[in-house]
Design brief:
Number of strands: 10
Order of helices and strands: HEHEHHEEEHEHEHEHEHEH
CATH class: Alpha Beta
Strand content: 5-15%
CATH topology: TIM Barrel
Strand order of the largest sheet: 1-2-3-6-7-8-9-10
Length: about 375
């Protein structure tokens, strides 16, 4: 797709031009491209569960392997219930330590870490969206997380993965309130705000009364470090659950052209940035072709990067999983390696700091004129 030179200037605020040697810095990268290191969110029937029995974290060897392939970011899913087993209580010291160890190991390999609360807008069996105690506890939890992981060069915050268990309008309001609370608390990390429902590119504009497009066109951040996270799978119902064996397979590459062009044009018009937080395919040739097209469609601004779903040692024969250390190289690695961000080969200008006009007041992020 062709975008104007003015669009190419859109970027994460306070990012400055850096040399090709800059690595492992969430802020000083032209693009953030990598993989989801799934495992810490596994086994929802065992909450909080026992670490390394019910759920796991990536090993140092696996992180080194992902970095060697060319990744500069990992998206690290975790469960709210494990990090904070009781509402309004301190964070669990053991779980904080496991996440901190992962962040340190990732940093040693030049990897930024996107901390992804992988809860689908639920806490145990309770759903967010009542504008009451659980919503307030969600904001408080992120304030505690921000204190533990305050270095914006090491970690980014993914507020909620696929918040499908609450109304879209309610999620948009809560996400903006959480972003404002983080900025009021002086948190300077990049913040990823998922679209409502399942965050799909394909239905970003869908909804009789409200859509992700209508609810997030006014997302504002005084640091210009808020990015909208979207997901997209390539099977016929966009769930990511099907293979050719089920008769669903992958939609052809051209199917996604207009959908990605539309959301890109929308983001450009409304000064928003986009991040493809989840996308994945089986290893068949037709699916590899669709994977390659998604990577092509997210090469230019307003796209800030992507993380493939998923990598990790506990996947077994999961059809979209990609190999880890000392495993046969998965076919999906081929196109991913071609599109991983490389500062030496990148033709884009480094993102610019926001102008004073764009560094707007955070108080505006909680209001909307309809």
């Amino acid at each position: 797709m062709k975008l104007s030179n003015s669009v190419r200037a859109i970027g994460i605020g306070a990012l400055m031009a850096v040399g090709a040697e800059a690595m492992g810095d969430c802020l000083n990268q032209g693009r953030l491209t990598g993989v989801n290191t799934a495992g810490a969110e596994f086994n929802l029937k065992s909450l909080p569960g026992t670490p390394f029995k019910d759920y796991t974290y990536p090993t140092k060897e696996d992180l080194a392997f992902f970095a060697q392939q060319g990744a500069n970011v990992i998206r690290l899913p975790f469960r709210w219930e494990r990090l904070q087993p009781s509402l309004d209580a301190p964070l669990d010291a053991g779980e904080v330590g496991r996440i901190r160890s992962t962040v340190s190991a990732a940093k040693a390999q030049g990897l930024c870490v996107l901390l992804d609360m992988h809860n689908f807008a639920k806490y145990y069996d309770n759903k967010l969206g009542d504008k009451g105690s659980l919503d307030a506890a969600f904001i408080k939890s992120w304030l505690l997380i921000a204190k533990e992981f305050a270095d914006p060069t090491e970690t980014m915050f993914g507020l909620m993965n696929e918040p499908a268990n609450m109304p879209l309008i309610d999620w948009a309001a809560l996400a903006k309130q959480t972003l404002k609370a983080l900025r009021d608390a002086k948190a300077t990390n990049i913040v990823l705000v998922s679209g409502g429902r399942w965050s799909g590119v394909h239905d970003w504009f869908a909804g009789l009364l409200a859509s992700n497009a209508s609810e997030f066109d006014d997302l504002q951040d005084p640091l210009n470090r808020a990015i909208l996270e979207v997901h997209q799978y390539t099977d016929t119902d966009y769930s990511g659950t099907h293979t050719n064996l089920t008769g669903a397979g992958c939609l052809p590459p051209d199917h996604f052209n207009s959908r990605f062009q539309r959301i890109s044009d929308w983001a450009t018009e409304h000064n928003q940035q986009l991040f493809l937080g989840e996308f994945g395919v089986p290893s068949s040739p037709e699916c590899i072709a669709s994977l390659t097209r998604l990577l092509e469609l997210t090469q230019s601004p307003p796209w800030r990067g992507w993380t493939y779903w998923a990598a990790g040692r506990w996947w077994g024969n999961y059809h979209m999983a990609i190999s880890a250390h000392n495993q046969p190289l998965s076919p999906q690695w081929g196109p991913l390696k071609r599109f991983f961000y490389n500062a030496q080969n990148d033709e884009q200008s480094p993102p610019e700091a926001p102008t004073p006009a764009r560094a707007i007041s955070s108080s505006a992020s909680s209001t909307r004129t309809r």
